[in-house]
Amino acid sequence: MLTAEFINTLFEAELPEPSHWESYYPQRNLPPGAIVTRFGPSPTGFLHTGGVYVATLGKNLAHHSGGSYFIRIEDTDQAREVPGSREQFARAFKYFDIESDENDSNSKWGPYEQSNRAPLYHTYARELLRNGHAYLCFCTREELAQMTEKQLAAKVQTGYYGSWARCRNLSQAEVMNRLEAAKTYTIRFRSPNGPPTRVAYVDLIRGPIEQQDNVNDIVLLKSSDQSPRLPTYHFAHAVDDPLMRVTLVLRGEEWISSVPVHLQLFKALGFELIPYAHIAPLMKFDGASRRKLSKRKDNEADVDFYIRSGYPAGAVLHYLRGLANSRFAEMTFEESASSALSLSECGVAGPIFDLVKLESISREFIAQLSTEEALKSLLTWARDYDPELAEKLSRNLPLARRIFANERQPGVGQRKDLAKWEEFRPAYGLYFPELFPLISDPSDSRFAPVKPDMVVKLAKDFADSYRHEEDKEAWFEQIRRLAAVHGFAPTAGQYKKNPENFAGSISHVSNAIRIALTGLRQSPELFLVAHNIGEEELLRRVRALTRSEASRSV
RNA sequence: GGCGCAUUGGUGUAGUUGGUUAACACGCUGCCCUCUCAAGGCAGAGAUCACGGGUUCGAGUCCCGUAUGCGCUACCA
Question: Please, are residues A37 and A65 in contact by the beta-carbon 8 Å criterion?
Answer without folding.
Answer: no
